[in-house]
Write a structure and sequence with these properties.
The chain has 752 residues and is an alpha+beta fold. It has six domains: 211 residues, no CATH class; 129 residues, no CATH class; 82 residues, SH3 type barrels, CATH 2.30.30; 79 residues, Immunoglobulin-like (Sandwich); 78 residues, Immunoglobulin-like (Sandwich); 128 residues, Dockerin domain (Type 1 dockerin domain, Orthogonal Bundle), CATH 1.10.1330.10. The chain contains 15 helices and 40 strands. The strands form 13 sheets. The chain has a five-stranded antiparallel beta sheet with strand order 14-13-12-9-15, with no helix packed on it. A five-stranded mixed beta sheet has the order 35-36-40-39-38, with no helix packed on it. The longest helix is centred in the middle third of the chain and has 15 residues. 39% of the residues are buried. The N terminus is likely disordered.
Length: 752
């Protein structure tokens, strides 16, 4: 075949992109990373270089929703992992493509007629900006099922030109004999996909991509072997057999012996192995770069090795929606963003060494050979007439001032084309003979009204740019942040502080690429307090208890804390989980990383397995026993209520502070005691805030404590303990007086 004809085949293959994919086998892919994985997040803040394409699509389809998926991955790292630099077989192209698409320009065969792709070819398909157009955008469509958007008709639209959607749409083969399916493939795919929760149009496109929907001739799915494998799962060449043989073995091992089970198995396989892990678009199925939080590794699992697989499937999806007339419905597109991406879309690789002299000149297009006739110019996606047309410019009037302005960024040296950047930011190529320099007032500089600012999380700052000279013709600017996790900026210059850290906001002029920066220092929201939901907890030996201290404010930046135990013999702690080891009373403290704030709670651990002898006593979870002191008694508690909180077979008496036996309806207060006859034990009650021993917090307690602090009155040790409201100070203070007073007035609650 002559080179000219070969080049024509390559061009047609690139434009039409009717290409069969190849499935990656997990064991073959050694490109994955499994540690320090960044967690992606979504918002609507795209880099400035994305916006011309996004805005163009928004103008045409106002119901479409575009979400930026900030992967946190470095562009060059991803590119290296997705090329032969890390794995020879991870990215492939058909051998009919030109040498610019192949590693070293050679046919390094890996899988059938597929060869290792060039790094420049992978960079082109990896860059999302190259596919932010009407048909390519559907490689970013969210793959969840959306009722009212996808339909049986749209599935049928994908299959219509295939045997599964035409003459055999309701039939299948079993060992060479045709059978009635009882429904259509479109209905079956739709219903199963809806149950699984995945886009049925994507599933139909994947089937068409894998086998052209050919149930008559494809050996993997036509039932000649009594099995069906609609997605070519496991169908790859290895030492154990051919792709067809391995595909049949895979279907046999999975029990896919009828059409419904094979379809369901394949659909669930795609969902369970890709979609639910974050590979929830066609692009992410090809490039494993999205970690919503649960991924165990990245860059390791790709459904297809063919670098043009996403483009091909996206085109099938687009045509299906277009044929059903639903392109203006509400679709959501999740578009990846990488760290340190090239400033503009990566161009497709070109034949030979096409070189450009860097330029930054304002130009316009003119064809002086046909004055008076409207000029029509094609702006192409590459420096050759074989590349697709990016846009068409029609000029009706003569003269540079009346023509569309653009910036020439490169003067072609061994090509007939110059590289230009359009006013909306898109980069294309136009024939050099039509390019004329426009004489205009250029931008000299740009400055910002603020060059440094310290913000708190959630704060905003409006930046204003001044372009000089004041009569510069093109004063358009773009805004960007070098760390959108710390601070973002929209295209009006509004900065939003996201989280603690430092970010640089850059404003750049469209003309002459002049720039100015503002440094944003974002400080976090500080912790002000920590507390436990309960003051007392109860556990049994062997049980586990998860404690979740409440940190205020709720939007504090650093909510980390550490739990400590007063007695490691009674329990162990792992993170925020307590495991009870032995019966007893345990104090637990939570200490915040930020500010060192402390909260305390008590855990009463019981051992139900321990045999009880004739002399035992147990308190319920509300009462706490430490040494000879019982706390946890609410003011106003009666003797009968205290008895209800005890479990003992010993004889006992409850007495007041003066040693008199209390009646059943009498109140238990500070200094009251409980004496166990056989145990020969005596414990004293302490009611915080209740000093005089009558069981009620009132003005008398306030007066007694005041006189004690002034050294005009004596209190016993239990009365002193009851006066220390914070439970940790060494002696009562004026602050305790204030808390008792506020409690009496109903402005404060003293916790027992």
């Amino acid at each position: 075949m002559k080179k000219k004809n070969l080049k024509f085949r390559i061009i047609i293959g690139l434009l039409v992109l009717v290409i069969v994919t190849s499935t990656i086998n997990f064991r073959k892919v050694n490109a994955q990373i499994g540690s320090n994985l960044p967690t992606s997040y979504m918002d609507e803040n795209f880099p400035a270089s994305y916006m011309p394409y996004i805005n163009s699509l928004r103008a045409e389809h106002p119901n479409w929703v575009f979400k930026a998926v900030h992967t946190g991955l470095d562009w060059n790292t991803v590119l290296s992992h997705e090329t032969y630099e890390v794995n020879e077989g991870i990215s492939l192209v058909e051998d009919i493509f030109g040498p610019e698409w192949k590693k070293d320009g050679q046919n390094n065969y890996v899988d059938g007629n597929y060869v290792t792709a060039s790094k420049s070819g992978v960079a082109y398909v990896l860059d999302p900006r190259n596919f932010l157009n009407n048909d390519g955008i559907f490689m970013f469509e969210a793959l969840r099922f959306v009722d009212g958007v996808q339909s049986v008709d749209s599935v049928q639209g994908v299959l219509a030109s295939t045997p599964m959607g035409a003459q055999y749409k309701d039939k299948y083969k079993l060992y060479g004999e045709w059978k009635d399916l009882g429904t259509t493939y479109a209905n079956l795919i739709y219903s199963i996909s809806k149950e699984v929760g995945i886009n049925p149009v994507h599933i139909a496109s994947r089937i068409r991509q894998e086998n052209s929907g050919n149930i008559l001739n494809n050996s993997l799915i036509n039932g000649d072997n009594g099995v069906y494998n609609f997605f070519n799962i496991g169908a790859y060449d290895n030492d154990n057999g051919s792709a067809i043989q391995n595909g049949v073995k895979e279907a046999q091992s999975r029990g896919w012996t009828d059409v419904p089970s094979a379809l369901r198995g394949g659909i669930e396989y795609i969902y369970n192995n890709y979609v639910k892990w974050g590979q929830n678009t066609i692009y992410f199925e090809r490039f494993d770069v999205n970690n919503p939080g649960q991924a165990k590794y990245l860059l390791g699992t790709g459904y297809m090795t063919n670098i043009f697989g996403p483009k091909s499937e996206a085109l099938i999806t687009y045509n299906a929606y277009a044929n059903c007339g639903i392109l203006n419905n509400s679709f959501e597109f999740n578009i990846p963003v990488y760290e340190n991406m090239p400033s503009s879309a990566v161009p497709a690789p070109t034949v030979g060494d096409v070189t450009f002299i860097e330029d930054n000149t304002q130009v316009y297009l003119d064809d002086p050979s046909d004055s008076g006739v409207p000029d029509i110019f094609n702006v192409r996606s590459g420096p050759d007439s074989s590349f697709p047309t990016l846009t068409t410019i029609t000029e009706l009037q003569e003269g540079g001032a009346n023509r569309t302005k653009m910036t020439r960024t490169g003067i072609g040296q061994n090509t007939l084309y110059d590289r230009v950047q359009l006013s909306d930011g898109r980069v294309g190529y136009v024939q050099h003979r039509y390019v004329y320099v426009y004489d205009y007032v250029k931008v000299d500089s740009v400055s910002l009204d603020v060059t440094y600012s310290q913000l708190k999380e959630g704060d905003t700052l409006q930046l204003h740019a001044t372009v000089s000279p004041g009569n510069a013709e093109n004063k358009n600017v773009t805004w960007s942040s070098n760390n959108s996790e710390v601070a973002t900026v929209n295209q009006d210059g509004l900065v939003t502080a996201v989280k603690n850290g430092v970010a640089t906001i850059t404003v750049m002029t469209q003309d002459m690429q002049k720039s100015a920066i503002c440094t944003i220092n974002v400080t976090g929201v500080k912790v002000t307090s920590v507390s436990f939901p309960e003051s007392t907890y109860s556990m049994k030996v062997g049980e586990k208890l998860t404690l979740n201290p409440v940190i205020q404010p709720s939007n504090a930046s650093n909510k980390k804390y550490k739990l400590t135990l007063s007695n490691s013999a009674l329990a162990s702690v792992d993170g925020n989980t307590i495991t009870a080891l032995k019966a007893g009373t345990l104090n637990v403290s939570a200490i915040t990383d930020d500010g060192g704030f402390t909260a305390r709670t008590t855990i009463e651990i019981k051992d139900d397995s321990a045999p009880k002898d004739d002399k035992f006593v147990d308190f319920n979870k509300n009462l706490k026993l430490t040494d000879d002191v019982i706390t946890g008694v609410e003011p106003g508690s009666t003797v009968s209520e205290i008895k209800a909180s005890l479990d003992t077979n010993d004889e006992y008496e409850i007495k007041d502070i003066n040693g008199n036996v209390l009646a059943e309806d009498a109140l238990v207060g500070t200094g009251s005691s409980i004496e166990f006859k056989n145990l020969n034990k005596k414990y004293y009650f302490v009611v915080y805030g209740e000093v005089d021993g009558n069981g009620i917090i009132n003005a008398r307690d306030l007066i007694m404590l005041q006189r004690y602090i002034l050294q005009k009155y004596n209190l016993n040790e239990y009365q002193v303990k009851a006066s220390i409201i914070d439970k940790v100070s060494q002696a009562p203070r004026a602050a305790d007086l204030l808390k008792i007073q506020r409690h009496i007035l109903g402005l404060y609650v003293i916790e027992q």
